[in-house]
Protein backbone atom coordinates (compact mmCIF):
# COMPACT_ATOMS: atom_id res chain seq x y z
CA UNK A 1 0.00 0.00 0.00
CA UNK A 2 2.72 2.47 -0.96
CA UNK A 3 1.71 6.10 -1.30
CA UNK A 4 3.55 9.17 -2.56
CA UNK A 5 2.25 12.68 -1.97
CA UNK A 6 5.35 14.62 -3.00
CA UNK A 7 6.05 14.79 -6.73
CA UNK A 8 6.84 17.35 -9.41
CA UNK A 9 5.80 17.47 -13.06
CA UNK A 10 6.26 19.92 -15.94
CA UNK A 11 4.12 22.55 -14.22
CA UNK A 12 7.26 23.29 -12.16
CA UNK A 13 10.70 21.64 -12.41
CA UNK A 14 9.54 18.05 -12.94
CA UNK A 15 10.90 16.36 -16.05
CA UNK A 16 7.72 14.83 -17.44
CA UNK A 17 3.98 15.31 -17.72
CA UNK A 18 1.48 14.34 -15.03
CA UNK A 19 0.20 11.35 -16.96
CA UNK A 20 3.62 9.71 -17.23
CA UNK A 21 4.00 9.80 -13.44
CA UNK A 22 0.56 8.27 -13.01
CA UNK A 23 1.30 5.43 -15.42
CA UNK A 24 4.52 4.58 -13.62
CA UNK A 25 2.86 4.77 -10.19
CA UNK A 26 0.17 2.33 -11.31
CA UNK A 27 2.80 -0.04 -12.74
CA UNK A 28 4.66 -0.03 -9.43
CA UNK A 29 1.59 -0.72 -7.30
CA UNK A 30 1.22 2.72 -5.75
CA UNK A 31 -2.32 3.03 -4.39
CA UNK A 32 -2.43 6.78 -3.66
CA UNK A 33 -0.47 9.38 -5.59
CA UNK A 34 -0.29 13.13 -5.18
CA UNK A 35 1.11 16.00 -7.23
CA UNK A 36 2.75 18.82 -5.29
CA UNK A 37 4.25 21.26 -7.75
CA UNK A 38 6.41 24.03 -6.33
CA UNK A 39 3.98 26.83 -5.64
CA UNK A 40 4.44 30.26 -7.21
CA UNK A 41 6.61 32.68 -5.26
CA UNK A 42 6.82 36.48 -5.65
CA UNK A 43 9.93 36.45 -7.84
CA UNK A 44 11.02 34.66 -10.99
CA UNK A 45 12.68 31.24 -10.76
CA UNK A 46 13.31 28.33 -13.10
CA UNK A 47 11.82 25.79 -10.71
CA UNK A 48 8.50 27.13 -9.38
CA UNK A 49 5.08 27.14 -11.01
CA UNK A 50 3.94 30.38 -12.60
CA UNK A 51 0.78 31.77 -11.00
CA UNK A 52 -0.90 31.99 -14.40
CA UNK A 53 -0.49 28.23 -14.86
CA UNK A 54 -2.39 27.22 -11.73
CA UNK A 55 -5.78 26.84 -13.44
CA UNK A 56 -4.20 24.63 -16.12
CA UNK A 57 -2.53 22.58 -13.37
CA UNK A 58 -5.90 21.93 -11.75
CA UNK A 59 -7.68 21.23 -15.04
CA UNK A 60 -5.12 18.65 -16.16
CA UNK A 61 -5.25 16.97 -12.77
CA UNK A 62 -9.05 16.71 -12.85
CA UNK A 63 -8.90 15.21 -16.35
CA UNK A 64 -6.44 12.56 -15.27
CA UNK A 65 -8.16 11.87 -11.96
CA UNK A 66 -11.30 10.99 -13.89
CA UNK A 67 -9.43 8.99 -16.54
CA UNK A 68 -7.59 6.79 -14.03
CA UNK A 69 -10.22 6.65 -11.27
CA UNK A 70 -10.54 2.85 -11.54
CA UNK A 71 -6.77 2.29 -11.24
CA UNK A 72 -5.36 4.69 -8.65
CA UNK A 73 -6.49 7.34 -6.18
CA UNK A 74 -5.05 10.71 -7.14
CA UNK A 75 -4.58 13.88 -5.10
CA UNK A 76 -3.58 17.45 -5.81
CA UNK A 77 -1.47 19.70 -3.61
CA UNK A 78 1.33 22.23 -3.63
CA UNK A 79 4.76 22.42 -2.07
CA UNK A 80 4.74 25.93 -0.64
CA UNK A 81 7.88 27.81 0.25
CA UNK A 82 8.34 29.80 3.41
CA UNK A 83 10.61 32.80 2.97
CA UNK A 84 10.83 35.32 5.80
CA UNK A 85 9.06 38.53 4.86
CA UNK A 86 8.29 37.23 1.38
CA UNK A 87 5.93 34.26 1.16
CA UNK A 88 4.19 31.56 3.21
CA UNK A 89 1.31 29.11 3.00
CA UNK A 90 -1.19 31.65 4.33
CA UNK A 91 -0.60 34.18 1.58
CA UNK A 92 -3.67 35.51 -0.23
CA UNK A 93 -2.88 33.51 -3.38
CA UNK A 94 -3.47 30.20 -1.58
CA UNK A 95 -6.61 31.17 0.32
CA UNK A 96 -9.12 30.29 -2.39
CA UNK A 97 -7.27 27.31 -3.85
CA UNK A 98 -9.11 24.00 -3.37
CA UNK A 99 -6.32 21.50 -2.67
CA UNK A 100 -6.20 18.11 -1.00
CA UNK A 101 -3.11 19.01 1.00
CA UNK A 102 -0.12 21.34 1.25
CA UNK A 103 3.55 20.69 1.98
CA UNK A 104 5.55 23.38 3.76
CA UNK A 105 9.24 23.53 2.81
CA UNK A 106 12.35 25.66 3.15
CA UNK A 107 14.51 26.21 0.07
CA UNK A 108 15.76 29.73 0.80
CA UNK A 109 16.95 31.58 3.87
CA UNK A 110 17.75 35.31 4.04
CA UNK A 111 18.22 37.85 1.26
CA UNK A 112 21.65 38.68 -0.10
CA UNK A 113 22.95 42.10 -1.11
CA UNK A 114 22.17 41.45 -4.78
CA UNK A 115 18.51 40.77 -3.99
CA UNK A 116 18.70 36.99 -4.36
CA UNK A 117 18.22 34.60 -1.47
CA UNK A 118 20.56 32.18 0.25
CA UNK A 119 19.73 28.82 -1.32
CA UNK A 120 19.98 25.68 0.81
CA UNK A 121 18.70 23.26 -1.84
CA UNK A 122 20.27 24.42 -5.10
CA UNK A 123 23.84 24.30 -6.33
CA UNK A 124 26.53 24.05 -3.67
CA UNK A 125 28.22 27.20 -4.97
CA UNK A 126 25.01 29.14 -4.30
CA UNK A 127 24.80 27.77 -0.77
CA UNK A 128 28.47 28.55 -0.17
CA UNK A 129 28.04 32.12 -1.41
CA UNK A 130 25.13 32.74 0.92
CA UNK A 131 26.87 31.17 3.89
CA UNK A 132 29.92 33.37 3.40
CA UNK A 133 27.99 36.59 2.77
CA UNK A 134 25.37 36.26 5.49
CA UNK A 135 26.69 33.85 8.10
CA UNK A 136 30.44 34.55 8.30
CA UNK A 137 31.26 31.35 6.44
CA UNK A 138 30.17 29.41 9.53
CA UNK A 139 28.22 26.22 8.85
CA UNK A 140 26.91 26.21 12.42
CA UNK A 141 25.49 29.71 12.03
CA UNK A 142 23.70 28.91 8.79
CA UNK A 143 22.38 25.66 10.30
CA UNK A 144 21.05 27.49 13.33
CA UNK A 145 19.37 30.04 11.05
CA UNK A 146 17.89 27.22 8.98
CA UNK A 147 16.14 25.79 12.03
CA UNK A 148 15.06 29.25 13.19
CA UNK A 149 13.38 29.89 9.85
CA UNK A 150 11.91 26.38 9.83
CA UNK A 151 10.29 27.05 13.20
CA UNK A 152 8.88 30.32 11.91
CA UNK A 153 7.33 28.36 9.04
CA UNK A 154 5.67 25.91 11.42
CA UNK A 155 4.44 28.74 13.63
CA UNK A 156 2.90 30.46 10.60
CA UNK A 157 1.11 27.24 9.60
CA UNK A 158 -1.27 26.78 6.71
CA UNK A 159 0.02 23.36 5.59
CA UNK A 160 -0.25 19.66 6.50
CA UNK A 161 3.16 18.10 5.89
CA UNK A 162 6.65 19.32 6.83
CA UNK A 163 8.76 18.71 3.73
CA UNK A 164 12.38 17.41 3.95
CA UNK A 165 12.75 18.93 7.41
CA UNK A 166 16.56 18.65 7.70
CA UNK A 167 17.50 19.47 4.09
CA UNK A 168 20.36 21.57 5.47
CA UNK A 169 22.29 18.28 5.68
CA UNK A 170 22.45 18.10 1.87
CA UNK A 171 25.24 20.70 1.73
CA UNK A 172 26.10 20.78 5.42
CA UNK A 173 27.56 17.27 5.24
CA UNK A 174 30.43 18.65 3.15
CA UNK A 175 31.85 20.62 6.09
CA UNK A 176 34.09 19.23 8.82
CA UNK A 177 32.31 21.28 11.49
CA UNK A 178 28.93 19.79 10.58
CA UNK A 179 27.92 16.67 12.51
CA UNK A 180 24.32 15.52 12.98
CA UNK A 181 25.42 13.51 16.01
CA UNK A 182 26.87 16.55 17.79
CA UNK A 183 24.88 17.88 20.72
CA UNK A 184 24.52 21.35 19.18
CA UNK A 185 22.83 19.85 16.11
CA UNK A 186 20.69 17.33 17.98
CA UNK A 187 19.42 20.10 20.27
CA UNK A 188 18.30 22.16 17.26
CA UNK A 189 16.67 19.15 15.64
CA UNK A 190 14.80 17.98 18.75
CA UNK A 191 13.58 21.50 19.47
CA UNK A 192 12.14 21.65 15.96
CA UNK A 193 10.47 18.25 16.31
CA UNK A 194 8.82 19.33 19.54
CA UNK A 195 7.24 22.30 17.79
CA UNK A 196 6.08 20.10 14.90
CA UNK A 197 4.43 17.74 17.38
CA UNK A 198 2.81 20.66 19.20
CA UNK A 199 1.29 21.89 15.94
CA UNK A 200 0.02 18.38 14.99
CA UNK A 201 1.84 18.28 11.66
CA UNK A 202 2.99 15.27 9.65
CA UNK A 203 6.71 14.72 9.06
CA UNK A 204 7.67 13.67 5.58
CA UNK A 205 10.25 10.90 5.22
CA UNK A 206 11.81 12.07 1.96
CA UNK A 207 13.65 9.40 -0.05
CA UNK A 208 14.76 11.56 -3.01
CA UNK A 209 18.51 11.37 -2.30
CA UNK A 210 18.73 7.90 -0.77
CA UNK A 211 19.87 5.85 -3.76
CA UNK A 212 22.23 8.48 -5.20
CA UNK A 213 23.65 10.03 -2.01
CA UNK A 214 22.70 7.66 0.80
CA UNK A 215 20.59 10.33 2.50
CA UNK A 216 17.00 10.55 3.64
CA UNK A 217 15.42 13.70 5.02
CA UNK A 218 15.17 13.43 7.96
CA UNK A 219 18.25 11.31 8.41
CA UNK A 220 17.46 7.72 9.47
CA UNK A 221 19.48 8.33 12.64
CA UNK A 222 16.39 10.21 13.88
CA UNK A 223 13.71 7.69 12.89
CA UNK A 224 13.56 6.12 16.35
CA UNK A 225 13.30 9.51 18.02
CA UNK A 226 10.42 10.57 15.76
CA UNK A 227 8.66 7.29 16.53
CA UNK A 228 9.19 7.72 20.28
CA UNK A 229 7.71 11.22 20.07
CA UNK A 230 4.67 9.74 18.28
CA UNK A 231 4.89 12.19 15.41
CA UNK A 232 2.94 11.00 12.34
CA UNK A 233 4.89 10.33 9.15
CA UNK A 234 4.33 9.81 5.46
CA UNK A 235 6.91 8.44 3.02
CA UNK A 236 7.45 10.45 -0.18
CA UNK A 237 10.01 10.24 -2.97
CA UNK A 238 9.92 13.92 -4.03
CA UNK A 239 10.30 12.60 -7.56
CA UNK A 240 11.03 14.75 -10.60
CA UNK A 241 11.23 11.81 -13.01
CA UNK A 242 8.53 9.13 -13.47
CA UNK A 243 11.11 6.37 -13.01
CA UNK A 244 11.82 7.63 -9.47
CA UNK A 245 8.25 7.43 -8.15
CA UNK A 246 9.20 4.83 -5.52
CA UNK A 247 12.96 5.39 -5.35
CA UNK A 248 14.32 4.30 -1.97
CA UNK A 249 10.97 3.08 -0.66
CA UNK A 250 11.99 -0.52 0.11
CA UNK A 251 15.10 0.52 2.01
CA UNK A 252 13.31 3.29 3.86
CA UNK A 253 10.36 1.17 4.98
CA UNK A 254 12.79 -1.43 6.31
CA UNK A 255 14.61 1.27 8.28
CA UNK A 256 11.31 2.59 9.62
CA UNK A 257 10.29 -0.89 10.77
CA UNK A 258 13.62 -1.29 12.58
CA UNK A 259 12.99 2.06 14.25
CA UNK A 260 9.65 0.81 15.57
CA UNK A 261 7.22 2.34 13.11
CA UNK A 262 4.18 0.27 12.16
CA UNK A 263 2.09 2.85 10.29
CA UNK A 264 2.23 5.83 7.97
CA UNK A 265 -0.43 8.46 7.40
CA UNK A 266 -2.62 8.51 4.31
CA UNK A 267 -5.42 10.71 3.05
CA UNK A 268 -8.71 8.86 3.52
CA UNK A 269 -11.96 10.72 2.92
CA UNK A 270 -10.03 14.02 3.05
CA UNK A 271 -8.62 13.24 6.51
CA UNK A 272 -5.07 12.17 7.35
CA UNK A 273 -5.32 8.77 9.01
CA UNK A 274 -2.83 6.09 10.16
CA UNK A 275 -2.56 2.94 8.06
CA UNK A 276 -0.53 -0.12 9.06
CA UNK A 277 2.28 -1.27 6.79
Account of the 3D structure:
The chain has 277 residues and is α/β, with parallel strands linked by helices. The chain has one domain (3-276): TIM Barrel (Alpha-Beta Barrel). It has ten helices and eleven strands. A seven-stranded parallel β-sheet has the order 1-2-3-4-7-8-9. The protein has a two-stranded antiparallel sheet with strand order 5-6. The chain has a two-stranded antiparallel sheet with strand order 10-11. Helix 1 (18-27) links the parallel strand 1 and strand 2. Helix 5 packs parallel to helix 7. The longest helix has 18 residues, at 139-156.
Q: What are the SSEs and their pairings?
A:
Layout: E1 3-4, H1 18-27, E2 32-38, H2 54-67, E3 73-81, H3 92-95, E4 101-105, E5 108-111, E6 117-119, H4 124-134, H5 139-156, E7 161-162, H6 169-172, H7 183-198, E8 202-206, H8 210-213, H9 223-228, E9 233-236, H10 249-258, E10 263-268, E11 271-276
Parallel strand pairs: 1-2, 2-3, 3-4, 4-7, 7-8, 8-9
Antiparallel strand pairs: 5-6, 10-11
